Amino acid sequence: MEKLTTKKGGKALYIQIKDIYRDKILSGELKLGDKIESEMEIQQKYNVSRITARQAILDLEKEGMVKRGRGKGTFVIWQPAIEEELSHIMSFTKEMEHRNRVPGTKGLSVSIEPLPEGFGSHSKEKMYCIRRVRTADDVKLVYFVSYFPLSTNLPLDPDEFSESIYEILDYTGTGLPVRIEEKISAQMPDKEVRDALNIPKTLPVLVRQRLSYSATNELIEYTTCYYRGDLYTYSISTTNQSAE
Length: 244
Hints:
Layout: H1 13-27, E1 35-36, H2 39-46, H3 50-62, E2 66-69, E3 73-76, E4 82-85, H4 92-98, E5 103-114, E6 126-136, E7 139-148, H5 165-171, E8 179-187, H6 191-197, E9 205-213, E10 219-228, E11 232-235
Parallel strand pairs: 4-11
Antiparallel strand pairs: 1-3, 2-3, 5-6, 6-7, 7-10, 8-9, 9-10
Helix pairs in contact: 1-3, 2-3
């Protein structure tokens, strides 16, 4: 059994316990669907307080490693990072279904507000703003902040949205995006992103800024996506074609 360190200046005990279980999950020793010890069992195993054991489990849940079920126990829900190939346009919903993951949405809100600076000539133009967290198998994976021109005629009632906003754009006559421009960077999450994804401030996020164009080359979407850096990766395939 792993031993905890009580040396001055060392990590808090609940963090050490969380790291032990996190490492077991990442290494595959604990697999998807496995049940982990209860708070009482962890308390006895590591000779810590019940509060310390509970905090370790809460942190594991916050990081999307486990899920607690009242009266059922705590189970591993983590799966290896999703790898998306940047060679095609596909909605998050279709991407998850393609990978046999169950897509979901949490905390969707709709408002009309100015487009922030940084989006070219359309900055400060009033648009629909949709904020939502997308999940895969009930794990919070990405936080979307999306702006759409008022000409897209999106509903203001969050209950009228399906899992894919692209489907609504197609239904209302705007059409699906046929071309996108994206920039990808890494950064530490601010409070809004941390609260949305329930992640610690030390977990980096992949930031994906997207401009989407319709078949008539009109800009129809301005989105900033914040992906959990530990659960999402990108791959790009290229060729080296020498001049003849």
